[in-house]
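Recap from last week: sequence in, structure out.
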Amino acid sequence: MHPHALSAIKQELNDWHIWGGRGVVLAFAALAGGSVVLFTWLTEHALALFFEQRAHWPWMPLVWTPVSAAAIVALTRRYVPGAAGSGIPQVMAALSPNTPPALRGLFVSVRLSVAKVVLAAWGLLAGLSLGREGPSVQVAAGVMHHARRWMPARAQVSDHGLLTAGGAAGIAAAFNTPLGGVMFAIEELSKHPEHRHHGLLLAAIVLGGLMGVSAYGNATYFGVIRVQDLGWALLGPALLVTVACGLAGGLFSRVLVVSIAGTSNDRFTRLRGRFPVRFAALCGLLVAVMGVATQGETFGSGYAHTRMLLEGQGDANPLTVLLKFMATWLTAWSGVPGGIFAPSLAIGGAMGHELAGLTQYANTPTLIALGMAAFLAAVTQAPLTSFIIVMEMVTGHAMVLSLMASALVASGISRLLSAPLYASLAGLQLQRLPAGHLSAERDA
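Predicted structure tokens:
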């Protein structure tokens, strides 16, 4: 062995700062993944309790949902404004070069992570149309970012690397797909990759994802999508689903950006600006009315209804799809902490199911899977992440190319209608930075 190589190996092995830093990163990656597992457990039980109580009192949501939405928004605005919304824009804002290190606590911290867990779970307990995957990104990033306090002086792992690894580990743990977490880091979070420590940070992402797999196994929350042999008969229906989901997802993204930014001067935007808590109550009431009208199909994340569609036990119609679209938009517009990943998958799956009936295509789960990937890709404009997440649900590799093509085309269509959703919302988050040199929220 070359003397210089041997010397480098000895220096690597003897530098406890390097190994201490690696140990801290991996320990906090496991802790971040575990926090998402706990978050998952809490949200699942909260939503199950909502449906259990609704079965006894069908009209309960008309009171409980708006009251809860108003209370959640009031608490969020007063105590933890950084916890509002999805959570992905906050992590992107924290990663922005415009954010001074001392002010990253405005967007990610352990305090915000705890608040996000409690308030998003309350949102599902209220039956609001939200998901936990976007919030999982902020929850895990907040935990991972805290690792910097325990890092040895010469560990050479930056805050940027910790935030990227934490956010990606959140997606990996939320969906039980470490590969999806890695791709999410590449597509959405990592604008300045750290070449020196990319191996360590990838290991942290995978470890965070494995925490979800160890807790829940390899099963996905939407069940397993079984497809038959694919042929040319799929081309027409698949193209129809892709274009429809691309247009609908692009429209959803555009409406969400415009409404949250408050750039229009309509009556509801003015109401939201002057009386945000009352506006949240109004949004909650409308979500409750939609849920009661659809026999509960638009309440919550949409996991249960999508699973029923995949198993051939449920039904979807254009009105239900439209109302789920509106319920998700109103929930996000209200300012309640919660994400849109799961509702987007539910909307896309319902569109695929409906178009399978319209085109009389025999293998309905195939179009459901394409709809899920296409709509999520159109909303997030992250086609590779969307494709990988849905691919993990499919048995075999027959649909890999179809899913990838559907996600890429739908994302391209969406770009004609809307600016990238999370980048736009991250820009709005950056407006929260103080003009002067004010102290940031303290990391808990």
